[in-house]
Every structure is written in C-alpha cells, then in structure tokens.
Amino acid sequence: MADYPFIRIINGKKYFYRFTVNQRIQHVILAVSVVVLVLTGMPLKFHDTSWAPYLYALFGGIQAAPIVHKVFGSILVILFIFHIFYLIHIIYRGQILPMKKREGLTVKNVLLVLVRQPLVPNLKDARDIGDLMKYLFYFTNERPKGDKFTWKEKFDYWAPFWGMVIIGFSGLVLWNKEIATTILPGEALNFSLIAHSDEALLAALFLFIWHWYNVHFNIAVFPMGNVFITGYLPEELMVEEHYEYYVKVMTEAGLENEILPPHESHEHESQHEGESS
Amino acid sequence: MTATYIRKFRYAGIVMFLMLCMLAGTSASPADASDITNCLLCHKYPGISRVDEEGKLRLFYVNEDVFNNSVHMKVKCEGCHTDIKKIPHDTAKKVDCLVECHITEPSTETKFSHRDVATYLEKSVHSTKDEKGQPKEFAEDLPSCKECHDNPLYRPLSFFKSQTPGISEDALGRCRTCHKKEEFIYRFYNHITSRLHKTRIPLNIAEVCARCHDNPDIVARHNLSTRAAFSYGETFHGKAAKYLSEKIPDCLDCHVKKGTSVHQMLSHEDPRSSIHNNNRSNICSNTDCHPDASQKLSNYAVHAEFNLEQSKTHYFFTLFFIMLTGGTLLPLMGIIFLDLVRRFFPNASMKRRKK
C-alpha cells in the first residue's frame, strides 16, 4: 500500500484510490476481450447488413474470425473463473478470516459479510435512484450523495456478471455441441443460440451506450475518465458521484477542514469556486 | 436525297460489319470447335437481342470464352437447339435438356442424354406426379431442369501441395506427356476436377433452393413448415455460407442421401430419406462434419424461424430477451437524456417556476 496512498495530492489536487492493479488489469482484459468478441460476433448476427462483410474480413473472415472469437471467449471464461476465485480470496482473507479469529464463524455472520459487500445492491441505491430522479427533473439542485460504489457502478458490475454467465455458458454449449448434446437435448442449441446472440447484443448496447456514457461521453469526464488506468479518481468526480463516501474518507484521513461542499448545478459550482479562491 | 442517305448508311453498315468480322478474326481465342455451323458469326455480338412476342427484351449474346469454360463446351450449338436447320433461323424453340446430343458417352459409347436425371427427378419429392402417377396439385410450381440449372462453369481444382481452386500447370505437364490435344487435356482436367467437389458453393446452392423455398406463396400453397433458405440463413451454417465458406453444409448435404443423385431428393416422411427421423442422426455424424454427434444433436431445430406459428418456446424465449434488452436500455437511455439536459441547462428549476 505504500506505493498507493489512499489520498494522493498532485499539484494541490486530491486523487482518491479506488482500483488496485489487479482489478485494473482484470478490467483491461475484460474490455479488450469484450470489444473483440463483439466485433467478431456481431457480423454473424447481422450478416445481412452492408457493413458486416467488411468488419468480418478485418478479422480474417469465416476462416479466421470464428477462431479469434473462440480465443477471446476462452480468455473471458478464464478471467471470469479467476475473478470468482479472486472475490472468494479477498473476502475470505480480508473479512471472514479476521472475523473467525475475533468472534467465531456462524452462518449468519458470513451472510452478513456477503450482503454488506460494497457492490451488493442495497436500500441506499433505491434512495439514490429516487434522489437522482428529483435532481434530473429539477426538483432539487443536489445530486444524490453516493457511497463507495453508486447504483450505476453496481449495474455496470452485475449486468456483465450475469451476461458472462449466460453468454459464456451458451457459448461453450455452441462450441462443444457434440459433448453438450450427450447430456442436453438438441433444442438446447437453439436456445443457446438465441441466448448467446441476444444477450450479447444487450451487453454490447449496455456497455457502449450506458457504460461509455458514464465514463467517456459524459461532459464531466469527456473524453475519458483516467481512473481505470491510474486507479485514482479526481476530487471533483468524487464529490459529484460519491459524496457520502468522500466525506467519510476525508474525515478518516483527518482532512475535515478541506471537505468541499456537495456538487450542485453548474451555477452553484462556479459560486463555490469563487468563494474558495 | 433520303434514298442516297440510306444507301450511304447501308455501305457504312457493310464496311463496319466487315471490319468487325476482321477484328473478330484477329482475336486471340481460337474458333470454338463446337461452333462448326458458325452460329457465333452473329451471336458473338454483345448487343444481339430482340423484343419477343410477350414484350420482353431477350438477349442472344453468347460469350465464347465463358461458353468454352462451361460444362457444355463440347456440345455443338445444334446439339441442344435441334430445331435450327438454317441460317438465318426462325424463332428457336425452348431447349429440351433430355434430348440426345452429339456427345458419345464413353463408357457405353451411346449418344449422351440427361434422361437418367429426369428418371431420378420423377422418383423424388419434386416429381410432378404422385405415387399413383396422377398429376400433383400445383404441379406447375415444381422444378424442371432449368429452374435450378443454367450452363454451369467448370470449377477446376489443383491438388499439388494443397487443394486450391484453378488449374494446376504441374498436372497439365503430366497430361501432355501422353495426350497431345490441348483442348482434350483442358476439357478432361476441368471435367474430372470439377466433379471432385461442388460446382456451386453453398451460398449459391441455398440461393437456387430459395427461388422456390423462400417464396411465401409457394411455401403456403405446398404447406411447407419453413422458408427453408431463410431459416438456414439463421443458423451458423447459413451465416458461414453467406461469408462464402465452402466447408459448411448446404441444402444438398443434408437432404440427399450420401452416394445418391442430388436429383433424388425425398420427403422427410419417406423412410428412405436422409432427413427421416430414423436417419437424421447419420447426417450430423458424417465424418466430414460432427463425427462425435449423438442422436440428440440432430434433433436440433435446424430450420427454426423463431416465430409463434412454428415454435412457441422459441418465440417466447426470444421475446424475453427482446423485452430484457428494451427494459434495460430504454430507462437507462432516458436517464442519459435527462442527465444531458440537466448538464446543458443547469439553471432551470421546477421550484423557481412555482415562485
């Protein structure tokens, strides 16, 4: 942790540590594989369109593109399995093992630990969505005060998580159809094809519209947020999206005096800037 | 004046015609052996055409290079156009493919004819007569030779080092050792190697079948369960065909029993048919395809259209994903839109308006 202080100050600007190197590498592998899989998969789904043959030809056409698709599909399956072990590892080492030493292991305690994981949806997310609606419809100028992970990020995490289970399983069935149909009926291939291609379209649209809007196209971060590379989130975005968490970590770091006021509409923001200068 | 003009034009026409003949005479390609009656004297001109009695523009151009690479290159024009006895000729009759042409079939040394093909066709599901020999309903929808075939080109293959399309000079060198006639060598090489694989790629086969099997009227009239080429196109096989793969199965690979004529295609209800329930598993487990395939693999709905009439489960399964996609993306896109509005017009306020 010595290399990664929780709050890093560069040229007077504060940056907050959010993602470890391990998590960032996982994200890059995920991102690259998903993009390649979409580019080698969609020309098959949309084989009737004018652009599909050109895009498919970029990946070697029908001779090579299916192989590229399977290679990157395999990478994604391995990443998913790694991620599950990674989750088990950090929860066990970080929370369950200390708890075992402290107060003993009970089912209730373990369940409580799991339910309180920062990425598990909770009632605060529902409240935050309600607050966001009030903000978006101009009933208030205050953005919802997000915790460490907002509902958007939880959505970004669980949607691909569910997607990878569905697409990964159906993809493996379609790939290994001879083995799969020793157990499953032949129609499982039809359902796998529907699930694989339709869920993939949903995942692609979700990532390229919703996720990319939040991390690339949104005017607060355009052309892109750096947190997925550096692991650090700048203070203004921390204030905008994770105010509750921001106040907590600033207090813990003994920087109560430097806590910025919550993000409001742009007009108010400029006033605050005027005051601070 | 007018008569002089016409005369001048006539001379100009004759001069041009002679020049064209000279140009044709100097062209590199040798005169076609099958054109001993000199039909190409007129039919070599790309513009040769007329409007027929039904008002349709008919083209009569014969491209000599293309014809000389086609499977009928050795057949003389009058071998098929038997009614043409003089030049200039009257309106020619439609070609009958079952006619005995001027080719001698080498194994029996008899005049060659496609009559056997017609015999197979008569025994197939595409026959115009039913089992009792009575004409079928809508017999006019059923295909005859020219519905599926034109004059196909040879697709020679080379097997030196690797299997590649085209003629191998290495092989020709071997032929020339014993055979002296270039035309003979070319024809036999083309004939044999074209027969070692398909003369049409899977996409073209599917397109031929689609002419009837994707026609909604014909599908409805004959009570067929699917638009066959369309539903084939929805499978990986069909999509790969679209990307010009030759390794994937086309219509004929599944619907024709191995080792029999493609013309003897049988109904799925016929126990002899390759796609009959009892025989289907042998299709997929073909050594060229999925040798480890079990019976269950062949129960895959290969002509699924994912609509309500054909399969409720497929339809609702698809609908679930469409609704999931719409249900997820539309609200999120709504939020993106509102977020953009909120960022571009930060000073608007519901409260202020009330005041």
Your description of this structure?
The complex is a heterodimer of chains A (about 280) and B (about 350). Chain A has a three-stranded antiparallel sheet with strand order 1-2-3. The radius of gyration of chain A is 22 Å and the shape is globular. The relative contact order of chain A is 0.11. By secondary structure, chain A is mainly alpha-helical. In chain A, a hairpin with a 2-residue loop joins strand 1 and strand 2. In chain A, helix 6 packs antiparallel against helix 8. Chain A is about 70% helix and about 5% strand. Chain B has a two-stranded antiparallel ribbon with strand order 1-2. In chain B, strands 3-4 form a two-stranded antiparallel ribbon. In chain B, strand 5 and strand 6 form a beta hairpin. By secondary structure, chain B is mostly helical. Chain B contains 16 helices and six strands. Chain B is about 45% helix and about 5% strand. Chain B has a domain at about 310-345. Chain B has helices at about 1-25, 40-45, 65, 75-80, 115-125, 145-150, 170-180, 180-195, 200-215, 215-220, 230-235, 235-240, 250-255, 280-285, 310-345, 350-355; strands spanning about 50, 55-60, 105, 110, 155-160, 165. At the A-B interface, helix 3, helix 5, helix 7 and helix 8 of A face helix 12 and helix 15 of B.
Short description:
The complex is a heterodimer of chains A (277) and B (355). With 277 residues, chain A is mostly helical. Chain A has helices spanning 21-45, 52-58, 61-103, 107-115, 123-136, 151-175, 177-183, 187-217, 227-230, 235-241, 243-252, 266-276; strands at 7-10, 13-17, 232-234.
